[in-house]
Amino acid sequence: MNVFERFAMILTRSRKRRKMISYVIVAVIIFFGIVFGAAISILTAPAEIRSSLFYRDEGKRIDVLQENIAYYNGIPIIDSSPMSRIRTYPWPLNGTVTCQYGGRVLNGEDDFHGGIDISTGKNDPIISIADGTVERMQIDKKSYGLYLLIQHDDGFYTLSAHLAHSYVKEGERVVQGQTIGLEGGEPGVDPYPGRSTGRHLHFEVRQTANQNSRINPLILLNK
Question: Cβ contacts of residue 16 below 8 Å, gap of 6+?
Answer without folding.
Answer: none
